[in-house]
Amino acid sequence: MKKIKNYINGQIVAYSDKTLDVFDPSKGEKISEVTISNDDDFLATIKSAKKAFYDWSQITPLKRSRIISKYKDLIEKNIDQLAQLISIEHGKTLDDARGSVIRGLEVVEFATGIPHLLKGEFSQNVGTDIDSWSIRQPIGVTVGITPFNFPAMVPMWMYPISIACGNSFILKPSEKDPSCGIKLAELFSEAGLPDGVFNVINGDKEIVNKLLNCEDVSSVSFVGSTPVAKYIYETSARNGKRVQALGGAKNHLVVMPDANMDQAVDGIMGAAYGSAGERCMAVSVAVAVGDIADNLVQKISDKAQSLKVAPWTDPSSEMGPVITKEHKDRIYSYIDNGVKEGAELILDGRNISIQGYENGNFIGPTLFDKVKSDMKIYKEEIFGPVLSVVRAKNYEEALDLVNNHAFGNGTSIYTFSHLALTLCKLCLFHLNYLDLLNIYNHLI
Ligand code: NAD
């Protein structure tokens, strides 16, 4: 059985014998074991990152950027292998997996501009005979703790910039799909990154706690669920570390009465059901404005039924399984709850069966209509292929829904013009919903 260890000081190594099982979500079968790191792994990782930091931080930004350029080339060369590693352990389609590596690669590309990005500022005469200047300096050993849903892209939001700035980095990937982190680190070494600058330590919350409480760690970046994000933020801040912690989400898509309905439904397919809904930016609520709701629901239902749900090994697959059996059960219980609370279940993705993959964690596209804002399926993040349609009388009512929701990560609005549609699609990724609504207001 394959054992996924750690990447410490440029070596694949594990001191701990303790492991957790890693599963193939398409079959529900164990495929490997991942190390649950102990104190020896932890101490070796910290020692390696601390030692490497000193030399790496002294290297000129230009030399650092050359290594990052080579790294970019290597990721491009190995993109198929990376995508496959993601699909095997996560279950998403190869297209989704490749796409996520490409998104991460954009950050690597951005980091190649580090000599320019690290420039400081100078102000003359801020007081009599006093000038003021600022410089950007590396801060030391930095840590990234990442979720299962993007095992390459989310770490790539963090370490390329941190390392380009002259820090060393310790990645603690999700224990559910840990292979990709090791491969990303190996490729960086191949590009010429000195040993110890990028380390990967596997494990669960115990290793996270050791990192959060370690005085040699200067900063922590976290992406994952909201309760854990709060815990990470509080603990790191209490320990005097710089910390950023991104949590869960619920994203609305507002469809105006004058929107091109077919374009809106096309957009909804990818946004709601892509990656089986396991995306922080997945659209999980469609707000139908005015009298279009019946038509919209019918069109979503027709199109969703034609989505091909299959394992990633099937090239025609459009939607894979969810990550674990436990997560599948959790999504089922949300669907049960939606029915109990009186939402209309138009499409029920439970009990889908795929020949040869009967034990896989598949859920078909699920659609609720007439969802109300006090229902659990509306209020909470489900993180699965479940879309709720909420009916709003007018634009103002739709806006209130968005503004009053506890989560406001992203909103897109489908409306009359193609320009607005394109802007809204772009904005989904780059702006928050207030910016979006401003753009919308300018267009009408
Ligand atoms: P998770 O919070 O369960 O796990 C994230 C990481 O934290 C993992 O590495 C895990 O090992 C660790 N962890 C888990 N429980 C812990 C605990 N009690 N103490 C310390 N560490 C702990 O999240 P997940 O299920 O892997 O990922 C899905 C979540 O991530 C969703 O809520 C999704 O919305 C969110 N997410 C958010 C963004 C964003 O940009 N805001 C992006 C991707 C995913």
Write structural notes for this entry.
The protein is of the alpha/beta class and 444 residues long. The protein contains 16 helices and 18 strands. Helix 4 runs parallel beside helix 6 (153-164). The longest helix is centred in the first third of the chain and has 20 residues, at 39-58. It is globular and about 65 Å long. The protein starts with a strand and ends with a helix. Residues 425-444 have low confidence and may be disordered. Bound molecules: nicotinamide-adenine-dinucleotide. Residues 145-150, 154, 172, 174-175, 204-205, 208, 223-225, 228, 231, 246-249, 280, 381, 383 line the site of nicotinamide-adenine-dinucleotide (NAD).
Share in β-strands: 15-25%
Mean pLDDT: 93
Q: Name the strands of the widest sheet in spatial order.
A: 15-16-17-14-13-18
- Amino- and carboxy-terminal Cα gap: 60 Å
- The number of helical segments is 16
CATH class descriptor name of the largest domain: Alpha Beta
Q: What is the number of E strands?
A: 18
- What do we call the CATH topology of the largest domain? Aldehyde Dehydrogenase, Chain A, domain 1
CATH architecture of the largest domain: 3-Layer(aba) Sandwich
The proportion of residues forming helix, as a percent range, comes to: 40-55%
What is this entry, summarized?
This protein is of the alpha/beta class.
SSE map:
Blueprint: E1 2-4, E2 6-8, E3 11-13, E4 19-24, E5 29-35, H1 39-58, H2 61-77, H3 79-90, H4 94-111, H5 114-117, E6 121-127, E7 130-134, E8 141-145, H6 153-164, E9 168-172, H7 179-190, E10 198-200, H8 205-212, E11 217-223, H9 226-238, E12 242-246, E13 251-255, H10 261-273, E14 283-289, H11 293-305, H12 325-340, E15 344-347, E16 366-369, H13 376-379, E17 386-392, H14 395-404, E18 411-414, H15 418-430, H16 433-443
Parallel strand pairs: 1-5, 8-9, 8-11, 9-10, 11-12, 13-14, 13-18, 14-17, 16-17
Antiparallel strand pairs: 2-3, 4-5, 6-7, 15-16
Helix pairs in contact: 2-4, 2-7, 3-4, 3-7, 4-6, 10-11, 15-16
